[in-house]
Every structure is written in structure tokens, then in C-alpha cells.
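Catalogue entry: protein

Sequence with per-residue C-alpha cells
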Amino acid sequence: MLKVVAMSFRPLYDRVLVKRLSAETKSAGGLFIPDSAKEKPQEAEVIATGTGRVLDSGTVRAMSVKVGDRVLFGKYTGDEVKLDGEEHIILREEDILAVLA
């Protein structure tokens, strides 16, 4: 895990900085889930975005996600970083599976 100390952070190109949302502590049936059995959630909030993907023609395609969006991402995608003591993930826009309404 990469440690970065920065007050402002802007990902480059088509990358997105996200922060995982907290995991559920209770199952749908009402049972409490111990910490050792919890999986890392695949749902996150977008904290910062890059400017967009540079196409072969040299133009920039704008990002389809914006700061504040709740997104789902793949289980084994992205790079974990620590910013100001909090864990975040840097993803490519193409690693985002869906935007939650």
C-alpha cells in the first residue's frame, strides 16, 4: 500500500479516486457478522476524478462519473493508497462497473 500525505489530490487522465463505503455489520436475516468474516465492500464514493481519457485523435473524452457518485467496482481492481491516514483506491474509469442512483 502506498502512503501519500497530501491535502489536495487529483488523479491523472481517466483515473478515479474512491473511498470504500463501510461494510454491513448485520446480515439480511438479522445476524451480526464478525470482522473476520467480512469481505471488503465493492461499493465506494468518488472523491476525485481526472480530466478524462486521451483518445488516439488527441481529443479528451470527458469522465462519465463525477465527485460524490456511488459506484460499484471489480473485486481485484485498482491500487490501494493511504491519504491523510485514510484508505482510498485509485481505479481506471473502465474498472467501474456501475453508478448507483
The chain has a mean pLDDT of 80. The beta strands are 2-4, 15-20, 43-49, 53-54, 60-61, 70-73, 79-83, 86-92, 96-100. The first strand starts at residue 2 and ends at 4.
